[in-house]
User: Fold this.
Amino acid sequence: MNAGNQPAGISPWGAAQEVDYAALFAEFGIEPIETVLPDIPNPPAFFTRGIVKGHRDYGIIAKAIREHTPFYVITGFMPSGHPHLGHLMVMKEVVWHTRMGGKGYIAIADREAHAVRGTSWEDCRKYGEEYLRCLYALGYRGVSYYQSRNSRLQDLAFEAATKVNFSELTAIYGFGPETTLAHPVSVITQVADILFPQLDAGPAPTVVPVGVDQDPHLRLTRGIAHKLRMFTVEDRGDHISVRSKNAPDEAVDLIYRAFPGSKRYEGHIDVKGVPHERVADEVRRIEQARGGCAFYTPSSTYHIFMPGLQGGKMSSSVPESLFTFVDDDGSVSKKVMNTLTGGRSTVEEQRRLGGEPDRCSVYLLNLFHMVEDDAELREIHRACRAGELLCGPCKKATLERVRAFLKDFREKMDAVVLPEEG
Ligand code: SF4
Assistant:
């Protein structure tokens, strides 16, 4: 699919591996993760090792974690094939957020798989269950659903569809005359996925951990979440401005009465002497009581992509680039032992010049998933660069870690009893 006005590498259906993150973040207003890192209690490795590189409005999530107030974490998986190494990071991010107090939601994007990849409904179900088994094996506890079986989600998608037109979708996704109608339906269903926790359990901050290629969905959803609100609440320095967007008169009256001394104008109210957060909370409460959505604009984190085992892009269409969690041991061994390294062409050269771990898929496999201890990871990096560690033994040690991980993971997956759909 044509990515429309997206720069190379940011279409959800055509992510390239080489992404200039700094330029991308600057262009789309994504903040570097460092701006919120000090606010995150005991940040896990995916934050501290530079795997999660950017965010939108994560401060409100960090605050909810610190203050033990409600928040949600939601992500979706497209069940068009077996879950694999490339899915592991976002799964870990979701599980970590649920451990930090977030209520979890997992959308199995079977409509998207059927629309975009032509996956049969039967296979969608089969692969969907595999994804859920992986998540539960990693410790996930929360809600999960299939898009095609969630009628409240579909109603929300329809409501969201009233707030976007075809030219906006074309600008974001590059839709053209040949695009089937299933594509925009799939897109608006994903918008509804992101907003669904707030419909299901009430307005609260929501974080969506994604790869940067998914940002178009986030931008679209944030815009729609805003359009679905009855009011806009803005801090104007010396006062808080509450603007009505077709809110019923009685809702405007209630807000006016809730803040004695406020000034009422045609379509807006100015509130003085009350903190922005308190005004925003009260407006949200009144909006919800009057039948409005009162959604928080969703937050997001952006992780980088682990490269394929053979370099380049990790993709299920390139089987050597990854292993799935159902691959047999022989196939996994072969793939790991054939992984592209940052080693030199001869042993003598490697001892003299050292390896290049930052360009090595073996090292990155360890950094992303296989070595939890930072000191151990630093030692691999140091020994490689010093020429003390050679690629053969390094790959063998990595394979042992992969085997141990898979053995444990598969046992846990087998033991999972999937809950009823939420
Ligand atoms: Fe990569 Fe290990 Fe070789 Fe270094 S020694 S280049 S980390 S495989």
Q: What stands out?
A: The pocket of iron/sulfur cluster is lined by residues 341-343, 355, 357, 360, 362-363, 380, 384, 389-391, 394-395 (CB under 6 Å).
